[in-house]
Hints:
Helix content of chain A: 40-55%
Number of helices of chain A: 23
Structural class of chain A: alpha/beta
Distance between the termini of chain A: 70 Å
Shape of chain A: globular
Low-confidence stretches of chain B: 1-56, 573-578, 585-592
Low-confidence stretches of chain A: none
Strand content of chain A: 5-15%
Radius of gyration of chain A: 28 Å
Helix content of chain B: 10-25%
Largest interface: A-B, 53 and 50 residues
Strand order of the largest sheet of chain A: 3-2-1-4-8-6-9
Mean pLDDT of chain A: 91
Oligomer: heterodimer
Structural class of chain B: alpha+beta
Number of helices of chain B: 18
Amino acid sequence: MNKALTVVIWIAISAIVLVLVTVPVSIQTHLVMGATLLGAMMVIKLLKLDGNWRLLLLTFGTIIVLRYAFWRTTSTLPPIEQWTDFIPGLILYLAEMYCILMLFLSLFVVVRPMPSHVSIRLPKDEPVPTVDVFIPSYNEDYELLAGTLAAARDMDYPEDRFTVWLLDDGSTEAKRNHPDPEQAATAQERHEQLQQLCAELGCRYLTRERNEHAKAGNLNNGLAHSTGEFVAVFDADHAPARDFLQETVPHFGRDSQLFLVQTPHFFLNPDPLERNLRTFEVMPSENEMFYGVIQRGLDRWNAAFFCGSAALLRREALATNNGFSGKSITEDCETAIELHSRGWNSIYIDKPLVAGLQPVTFASFIGQRTRWAQGMMQILIFSFPLFKSGLSLPQRLCYLSSTLFWLFPLPRMIFLFAPFFYLFLDLQIFTASAGEFAAYTLTYVVVNLVMQNSLFGRWRWPWISELYEYIQSVHLLGALFSVVRNPYKPSFTVTAKDESVDTARLSELARPFYLIFLLLILAVAMTIYKIGAEPYQAEVTMVVGGWNIFNLILAGCALGVVSERREGWGSRRVAVERRCEVRGADGNWVRAGFINVSSGGVAVRLPNGAAGLGRGMPTSVRFAPLANIGIDEMPVFIRSVTQEGKGVVFGCRYMPERGQHYRLIADLIYANSANWQARQSARQVNIGIIRGTVRFLGIALYQTGRGLGYLLRFGSGKVLGK
Amino acid sequence: MKRHALLTSVAILATLGPALAQPAPFDMSPESNRVVVPAPAEPDASVPAPVEAVAPVGFSRYLVPGASLRLIGEEAKQGVVVYLTAAQAAAPATLNFGLLNALVVAPEISNLRVRINQTEIAATPIASSSGTTPVSIEVPAGVLRAGANTIEFRATQRHRTDCTVDSTYQLWTEIAGSSAQLAFEGDDLGRISQLADIGAVGVDATGNTTLRLIAPDVADPTAQAAMLHLVQQIGLALRTPKLSVVLADAPSEERLPGVLDVAIMPAAELPPEMQAAQPQASAGPLAAMLPMPSGANTLIVSGPTWDTITRAGDAMLNAAPISPERPRFDLPNPLPLMEGGASASLASLGVDQLEFNGRRFTTQLQFELPADFYAYRYGELELVLDAAYSADVLPGSEIDIYTNGEIASATPLLRTDGGWLKDTRIRIPMTNLRPGRNEATLAVNLLTRSDAVCGPGWTGAAPARFILSNNSDLRLPDYARATGVPDLQVLTGTAWPYAGTAAVPLALGQDQDSLVAAMMFAARIATASGQVITFDVVPQDSLAPDANAVLVMPTTALSPLNLGRTGIGAAVATGQGSDDALLNQFGNNESEGPLSGISNWLQSTVGLDLTDLRLIPAPDLAYVPAPETLVVSQMRQPEGGVWTILTSTSGPALAAGTERLIDTPKWRSIAGRVSALAPGEDDITVVPANSVSVVTPATTSPFNLRRVAANWFSGNILYFALAIVAGAVLLMLITSRVLTKIGRPS
């Protein structure tokens, strides 16, 4: 059977199934059918059947969702003449339809994610291609840049075939000549320090006249000054592993139309939610769903897109687009969609090859998400993916999915407030009896959960998506409206990565979360009152009240997210096992071994005692670096001492004095990307819907209490005042 | 002004003593929930029957096509249609009837209004709880007209003391059929001289209309076919709901109410007293009212041959056609046929604009659905309601819709500040709708703040609290068009599948009882559906299973082969048969099983009937009629013919049972595959069909097929689940295949 014929048959069978699904059978018939399919889905899931069984589960789910959509469309909208019911009813309906559309789009995207690409090596007899490594910087501090530059320089690649560029937008000519002398001096100082750092590390330093077109302009300036065949881009806080170029460059040899090899962003620190909810060590991170399955799914349809960092691009392809696109504030995705539409290909390699930092505070997390959401909206407006010429149909659907995703604040907020229309205003915006609600809506909700869990269960636990969406929606909603009002207005804001939360406090963005929580509590009170006062509609009140309570649980959990826990630097450690030596108190080198490393320090075990060293003493460690750095000794400072049987473990802090020392640190931390993968997969476990739900409820309950506690302790002036 | 004058013309005959005319003493306690039964049909010996009391000279007509008219609830309306000759319409007339009402009806605030042809001719208080009060009303000249006249009784009744919704169920007023008459002054007014006036035959004191058929050749199949055709046409022309037929040897000796003599025979066989018609009858088909010396109204249908006689009946229907202006005696309200997508305003269905100050308001309406209405398991019709209610109305009040006597939808009134129900859509499941005539009741239960207090006299003094606009619309969706077979409801409501086709073979028993039963059955189908079925009387051995057929004969006359083809089991006194039937009776009591708990729960919470979950329907076992029980059974032959049988264990039981069956409430209960009426019973036993085949119209659109599928799947639930699963598996397989062809290879 050839491809066209297969697709025609597929369309024909789909049409038949669609006709069958839209037969307006009685509610009892739907209920029996729904129970049958749901039962079958549960069996498939419990037995962990894969392959075509997984596809069957998704097909069953699709049918139930379609029937819900059909029923919702034909039977539940309030009559148009009653516009006070109809308008909110229609809005709720559209929000639900958006969710169903997104479900189907994501179903398409991840129907068969690509398995990992096999590592390949460069052919021995061919010349090694040249690579320019761009590290754009705007305001990151010296230490962070030093670490990243050092890690980039340490990459395993012939010395003469790659150049590391620091593209410094923090000390452009314009900034150095800023009218404010203080700012000008700061820029000048930064300019000189970084120039010296680059010289020490063997990197190239580049800045420009003015900060035009933000990150894209900076990268394009880099392109203009370099000539390498390929361009690697790392954000200033994304330090590459040693094998980054080894893993990525060879793929370009196999496909001359390949413009991008993207790798995941792996983070050493938790995001605010993970930190405040203490889930970082056990639960898969938010971005793992995107990099663990969605990018792999996109890769199947040749639609994996550039994520701004941790990627290798072909200069020839970029040239056809005059470099990186800068119309939107998400230049990465915009560049990818442009190049895809010109027939270039991309691949995604599911192996963490950079280690980065996430925003620490809730405020900067929201800032970062605001940029992504606004940028994706700009792409949606400027080049609507569904009608973008040059893209294949799957690519159009993929980009549609990626951009439309960022509309999530709208439905999330609508779902939050919809129960109020009934509870407070007595509007009937969803016309259905309790029986119909049970037969259609309940089966739909359960099926949705089962499908999401089957698609993303390993990477996303139940209800966590809703939580992430909710905490972002509160502030993103306004940002979305501002893009729609003026698509050219949003400007590139650089996400702060080097903050820390020294003391426990409430986030400066916490206020609306408490207000919403209060409203939801009032709605619960209203529910109880209504059930008592209006027994003739208690059934409907209980359904709507239940929905409101779900919102309350979500909002309570979010209180925990905006209650920032205190956390010091560098506590996220990576286990390593490498031999080293420590200089004892007498100046002699003592045999020792590294246990773990972090960006701030290292733990060293001395098997035969402390060698005269103790807490608070400076010393040095030396080890054989994997790259050719030239030195092997690094100054450290002992911060803690732990007895361990006969031996002792020192907790040391790096005391780098020269650029080369950063290369040693990078050698320790970023030497082995396999480490990171192990750490990720340890928490990528599907815990199932029931356990996940119970766990979520537990977290929510605890976090609600913690959030309210923080409000009492720190909230007096911040949230309730003003 | 005029109306006022009319009111004063009401005269209550002073034939009763003053003490009896007084309202009942105010000592009854409604709180005791005492149910007041109407006085026995036999009037008190001391009270002379009104018929004898009035009727000075001239001629009286009975009006009510049934035993009585009952007006129940706070606002009630009952009407009858009376056909008058021109002479009757022109004569001075008096309307007489006897009134009896429940004890709890408050006389000072309850009244009965009488309207003839939309003109109110009288209003009288309802104050006859202690015994039947005769009422006599002079009909003003010019109100009556030749042809159809609608006489309507409208009661406004309020409880003496109780302000609850429940108390309104105790309110009733009854007008006995035997007491309601129109009395005309003048000579020979009972004579009907034109075919067009045939409806003036009317009803007798019990509400019946009887045909006395004078026919010499009752054993001749051609004659039988002609007679069957003719009685249907007469039934339609008369506009009676129910036509009793008796075979008579000789003309009536006097004119009796509700009786029509029909002489049907070839010209050559006309008896001496009808010789006057012979010249005309010998020349061609003849149907005419023949003046008889006895004064009995006599219709003669004749012609040179039986073929021409059959054609003669058509002339009668031409003279007295079926039209909206000529409604059936018992159906004064409009009866539109509602096709898919049709809508009708309540005004066009005979509902009045109303301001209501009571507790429970009800109004009836009716409409007709075509024979191939097939949407009773899925789908909803809509009542787009324009109404308003005052702030006095409390939440918990409800608008209920009943269809064919079953509750179909309940819409609570939720807003507490009074409300204007503008274009409020009430969705009404079509579950109880059926092909043919459908009855719906709109009921509004009002709980109010002031009723909770219920001060003295408040039941009548409360201000209006509910207003119904008759601009409200009844809207039908595009519904599925198909017919399920067997389904007796379709036959008795619409004459499907026998009407409008070539002659239907009819196998008739050899006895006269079978012929009489067949004629009454056919006439009742005709009066219900407005359709005439052409029959071809044939011997039962010549019935072909691939063609439709009707059988009317006692079971004893039925050949064993045809017994099997009609779904009737032979009533065998000994042997296996009766044992099986006996055992089977227990086998059918499924609800006693261990699953009954789950089954009942499903039925009550989601309306799911576990029997709908069968993949293979239980076999439709032959029905063994009990002795003397009348049975109608329909069966689709494997070869395609739809066979219907009307039978009983003996000829007399067949005729007697049929005469009871054609009474409207019983007739409307006929349904399923088998309907049986036992001699002493008033309820029809219905055996639903387990295996029903669906016949779609010859030309049908894909959209209709989809709707037909919706109805079919809704009754064959597991098949829908299976079809979906099969579709899903197919889709999964082809998707899996497509995924190997498109996208980046792994």
